[in-house]
Design brief:
- There is one protein chain.
- The protein is an alpha/beta fold.
- It has 19 helices and twelve strands.
- The longest helix has about 40 residues.
- The protein is elongated and about 100 Å long.
- It starts with a strand and ends in a 5-residue tail after the last helix.
Amino acid sequence: MKKPYVAIVDDDSAFANYLRTFLSLRGYDTRSYSRGDEMIASVKQGDPPDIVLLDVMMPGMNGIETLRALKAAKPDLQAIMLSGREHASTIVEAVRLGAADYVVKPDDPEGLGEIALDAAIKSAIEKTRLVSEITELRRQLSDDQDRAFLFWGDSPEMKTIATVIEQVSDSDVTVLIRGESGVGKELVARAIHQRSPRRDRPFVKVNCAALPGELLESELFGHEKGAFTGAATTRVGKFEQADTGTIFLDEIGEMKAALQAKLLHVLQDAQFTKLGSNKPINVDVRVVAATNRDLEAMLQRGEFREDLYYRLKVIEVTVPPLRERRGEIAHLTGFFMDRYARRYNRQARQLSDELTGLFQSYEWPGNIRELENMIKRIVILQDEQLVVREMTRSGRPVAMPAYAAAGVGVGAPMRGPIAPPVANTDDDLDDDEAASDEADAPPAPGSRLADVAKAAALKAERAIIEDTLNSVHWNRRRAAEQLGVSYKTLLNKIKECGISRK
């Protein structure tokens, strides 16, 4: 293991030699400099130490000036100031500039000064280690996000979304991300943030479904001490934490109406007040929201504010489910396999042809999150047969249209909630989708059971497709989204069932 490297900057050669001996006995590598500019030149040449012991009083460039230049060259460098005596004003200035500690030069016979210096060095080294770990974790997270984002370039379904992300990232417009649970809405939000001018500022995520309304308000906007029972201290809210950065409001459809009104005020005025306070707080925050709920249906039921809906929906991105992005499954499988093999120190496995085939035919009700968890189990347990049995037992190894359940059993749920009137944005259907009465004709006497079942299923499909199309005023893209199928599949079904606009 590499020894920590400590640089000594002191014009007193006798004291510098003493420090080198002191540090060597404790397992540190050392190097000494007699002037501050020598130390700065070494750092700029790419040879920074882990810790700097910096004398306050030096001729020419003193310790405070050297500290200021060191922090400008390498902000995360840990520097401990050394002085023959305590000067309050110097201590305050050193701390303000980012010094890790301020220690009086050890010269007492009891050795208390050496104990204090040793403790300060160990503390600074621990801070350096933590900074290095956080930097590496952020780098890995950024690499993971970039690698996942690159998959979209090979996915026809996601190319449009990738293009929108690139187009809107450099602005501060509000973005509403829609899609089923587990499709990667947070990844889209992070991609927007990472490609924006705010990339070096905070990205703060809030799950609006995780807390009841009373606690969510405190989570978002903070509270003053004594604002309510149990508020023992003042709390800084997520909006204040995200100042100059991005806040991601996940599951925005779960937010209660009263809190929606306060959020609307923040979006309009960039200002809010904490619970229990009358003092307004100004914030500069970009808002990205996500939901898997049908906000249009919630508007009609009065569960979501119309003015907030249009405030959030400046730019709308709809992420398709994994079953409509099967070209990404192989990339995502390799990506998660590599990630968790490294994280859990396991061997990366090559999936069998059987499991690869199941992955391509499975319906993926849990989308990418379900795929990720399956790969995680394979990596940890090193046994893919557990996943094979689980997928086979689920009864959903083969992809089925989401609306197929409408013709099965009694009381089957009807997909496609009523949506508000929307102008038809699609081209008219071709002549080959003219009305046909075949689907409505009853089966002839003596028909085979399979034929009767097929006719019943076709009739049920036609009924639910017609109802959904009429409810959205024949906006076929919106109907496809509500029915849980691709736009192309819906057009084929319209043609197959002989449905025409009346």
